[in-house]
Amino acid sequence: MLDPRPVRQICHGTEWRESDPDTLLEVNGPVPHRSWSVRTTIAGETIRPGDDIQQRLSRLDYFLLMFPPSQLTLMHLLMNEEIQKINTFTPATHQAMTKGELLKFFGVIILCTKFEFGNRASLWSLWSRTAKLKYIPAPCFGGTSMSRTRFDLVFRCLRFSYPPAFRPIGMAHETFRWMLVDDFVDSFNKMKPEAGCEVQNAADGESGVILRLKLVKTELEAREDDGLTLGTRVAKYLVEQWARTDRIVCGDSFFASVATAKELKSMGLRFIGVVKNASSHYSMTWFSSLELSNRGDHKGLVHLDTDGNPDMMAFVWVDRERRYFISNCSSLVEGDPHVRNRWRQGDDMEAGPRREELTVPTPKVCNIYYDTCAAIDQNNRHRQDNLQIERKIETKNWATRVGTTILGMCIVDAWLVYKGATGTSETQSEFYSWLAEELIDNSYDKDPIWRSTGSVTEASPPQHLFDSRTGAGRSAIQAHLTPTKRKRKVKGVIMQNQFYQSQCVVCASKFKGQKRKGFKSSFLCSICNDESLDSTAAESKVWLRHSKYGRNCFAEHMAACHSSQYSLASTLVHVSNFEVFSLLQ
Predict the structure, then answer these.
(1) What pLDDT was estimated at residue 180?
(2) Pick from 370, 396, 418: which residue ends a domain?
(3) CA dist 21 to 294, 297, 325, 361, Å?
């Protein structure tokens, strides 16, 4: 019996058949949706979108989740070796650095991106030109406890990997080295800097986190003869860790080809890509001859496996121009239309332009592709336009530039995971500022046992160090006075620099029935605050006058309501007070 699906084109032995009903069915079956997740080292805990609304993990914790611990150890080892070499050949003696100081160095680098400067030394100077301005405060990097001399030394010794013992062939002399770099820049991309390289990477389509990358090193690497195109080889390398997971891989024209779709299917993966140059085995000629005049028009062909079932689909879709796709998943069922807002000038030239909504019908497979394909570009824009490490920290060293670029990727990934897990309204710029502060003030070398991002064998923080109601970390344990986090409102306007205050319960009981009502306070009893069922109502909280004003309200409240913990509270309240005062000074 003849197959009713006619063969429209045979391309290098690959038959493409026309069958509109088959294009409306899921090629190779449906693919279930999977949300992103990050596996931590805390007893195998997994973080998913919205799992950390209470923000149990700090921004530093998220950075350490994204920065490989083995890389931190390697950099610490290599940089100390460089410092030792400097101590050997110079009379000056420089102290070896710790991992905590390396994290502090990362924080200072991020802090540098917050300022405009011509000379990096001006960031530590109180007598620079910018320091004399009346309304712009001086950067004053001396407060980071890392001097400019120490920063320059660490930056000089910055190493991300073991350098080769000998220069690669063709780069043994500076003249030929720069000829190769200039030729690379002129031939491949005019926008690339001299101290840079081409990077091919894979990112999660939902969160935008960079998953794996590959540096383009030599031309000989691109000429490996294994029967596959370069794009197919690179695509297999980038996604091989997720083989047999039935995930969808969306690739641009560098990777998209019929060969890539076949290879990834053999690895247990799906693929969607836009075909441009790698048109071997693809019915480009037949699609180009079709008459498609309206935006949203599309036409597809299917490839059949040995059992006669469709295993690949090639189709053309018209937007501003024709776009040719190859896919081994999804279908051409109508999906969500693509909507654009445009300003159009009507027939009346005297009238102003009017806003029109342009709707383009889009197949389901195109929805999947365009919801995913911009993830890497967005990650790059976050790093280049918002973080700006490459622009602010200038270097002519190729290895340093590539290393700081990858460091920027880790920082951006930390922001993306933090935003997705906490659902915060914090802006990206604010996150980088707070992360720089936490990196500079880190206690990585002091309390490794309590680090939430340590190895599985390290103990996690005791549960009594966290608020049982909110999950937030405590500034003291047992009974103590804790400041409220509410802000005062004046005529509906929140005063950011003023805490909410309410009547002290001890003073109110003493002056009950008198004209004098006692004193107001912004401090709460920690035990009563934890036991409060309503975390927002001020009436349900126990407000107490602080002892720094000469009142014994807290001691009297403890004796009356929490006598079993009174002896311990009298010592711990000073610890809490000291921490609060140090923040307010």
Answers:
(1) 41
(2) 370
(3) 22, 16, 18, 19
Query: Do 411 and 476 belong to one domain?
Result: no
Which pLDDT score, from 0 to 100, does residue 431 have? 97
Q: Are residues 297 and 383 in the same domain?
A: no
What ranges in 460-520 are assigned the alpha helix state H? 505-510
> For the chain, what is the domain count?
3
Q: What is the pTM of this model?
A: 0.72
Residues 305, 268, single domain; the answer is yes
In a domain, 363, yes or no: yes
The dihedral built from the CA positions of residue 459, 36, 380 and 340, taken in this order, carries a sign that is: negative
Residue 28's pLDDT is: 94
Enumerate the H helices of 348-484 as residue ranges: 364-370, 375-381, 389-392, 398-422, 428-440
Per-residue pLDDT at 582: 26
> Is residue 485 a contact partner of residue 550, using CB atoms and an 8 Å limit?
no
Q: How far apart are CA 353 and CA 340, in angstroms?
A: 16
Same domain, 467 and 567: yes
How wide is the angle at C-alpha 455 spanned by C-alphas 449 and 457, nearest 5°? 75
257 shares its domain with 361: yes
Give me the domain span that covers residue 347.
7-18+243-370
The structure tokens listed for 407 are: 């460091």
**296 — phi, psi (to 5°)?**
95, -10
Residues 549, 469 within the same domain: yes
Answer for the pair 249, 239: CB distance below 8 angstroms, yes or no: yes
C-alpha atoms less than 13 angstroms from C-alpha of 130 in its C-beta half-sphere? 16
Low-confidence ranges of the chain (pLDDT < 70): 1-3, 42-43, 128-131, 167-196, 218-225, 447-478, 511-518, 530-540, 548, 550, 563-585
Alpha helices in 114-227, H assignment, sequence order: 148-156, 174-188
In a domain, 234, yes or no: no
Residue 200, domain member (yes or no): no
**Which pLDDT value is given to residue 194?**
55
Instruction: Identify the pLDDT of residue 539.
Output: 54
Q: What local confidence, expressed as pLDDT, does residue 476 receive?
A: 56
- Bridge partners of 310, per DSSP, are 304
494 token code pair = 């929140």
Give the Cα-Cα-Cα angle 341, 347, 348 (nearest 5 degrees). 105
Q: What is the DSSP letter of 382?
A: I
Q: What pLDDT was estimated at residue 131?
A: 62
Q: Helix 258-266 to helix 230-239 angle, to the nearest 10 degrees? A: 30
Return the pLDDT at 427.
Answer: 96
Distance (Å, rounded) from C-alpha 301 to C-alpha 18? 5
User: Is residue 401 located within the same domain as residue 360?
Assistant: no
Is residue 143 in some structural domain?
yes
- CA-CA-CA-CA torsion sign (198, 203, 208, 209): negative
Q: What is the pLDDT of residue 171?
A: 55
Domain boundary, last residue among 353, 370, 387: 370
Residues 343 and 399 in one domain: no
